[in-house]
Amino acid sequence: MKSTHCLYTATYADLKESTDPRDVAELTKWNLHGRRAGQFLQERFFLRRCFNHYLEQDDATPLPDTCRLSHGKPYFLGDPAFYNLTNTGQALLLLLSHDGPVGVDAECLRKRRNLQAVAKKVLGPAEWQYFTSLASTDEENNAAQLDFFLQRWTWRECLLKASGIALAGLSSVVGDDKERDKVTSPLNVSGLMYSYALSDVGLGEGWFTIFPGDNTGDLSTLGYSPQGEGFTFSALDIKARACAQVN
Question: What Pfam families does UniProt report for this protein, alphabetically (predicted)?
Fold first, then answer.
């Protein structure tokens, strides 16, 4: 049985839809329709394949029953493994662990409205100082600022998803006054948080961040791809691009 985190990646275009009656029933419960309903069933299909692979059990094994925390974060009854799922564009990333609750968030690189105003509200003093130092004369196309902000946004969402609070707790994640690679989050345990480039896992431009990480930043990563009537997982070699101290 594995004892470390494992990240699984896929694109929606490569995934089938779950036919599990429990998953289909969830569509009505959460009032999901159209494209979002299809994506939800694809996510459940992906989760089952990854979960069984992670636990080294038969692929036909159904997923355990799922419950949700008060703010909506799902978990498996009995905690056979902890997981967190994120999507951005066509990319889907799933983090599984035996060690405890985890969080993962991804953001693809695309322009954001009111970037300056949002960044000033979200970033800590040291982060904001660095953000402003990246300013160019072309404010409408400030790629460096956008790239930095998106990385820091994944930090916050990752921590909130690990805690189970989600965006309701955004104001509780505070960047340090002096160190731009340090954040305080009373909802999380102390630890290290790592950011990786989406391009390193073949999912376009942008960032994804996991918490908590180990002392090395190494992350076992597997890419899903269809193969005939079945599928395969391929190992991906990635390295952390950034590290932050939490609490």
Answer: ACPS
What's this model's pTM, rounded to 2 decimal places? 0.94
> What are the structure tokens assigned to 50, written together?
């990854």
Asked whether residue 25 is domain-assigned, the answer is no
131 lies in some domain: yes
The reply to whether 70 falls in a domain is: no
pLDDT in the model for residue 113? 85
What pLDDT does 76 receive?
Answer: 92
Q: What is d(CA 241, CA 75) in angstroms, rounded to the nearest whole number? A: 29
Listing from the earlier edge strand, what are the strands of the sheet with 82-88?
82-88, 91-97, 6-11, 220-227, 230-236
pLDDT mean over 17-39: 95
Which residues span the domain enclosing 177? Answer: 6-15+79-246
CB 105 within 8 Å of CB 154: yes
> Do residues 224 and 231 lie in contact, with contact meaning Cβ atoms separated by under 8 Å?
yes
CA distances from 53 to 13, 120, 135, 143, 163 (A): 20, 42, 45, 38, 25
Domain membership of residue 203 (yes or no) is yes
Query: Domain total for the chain?
Result: 1
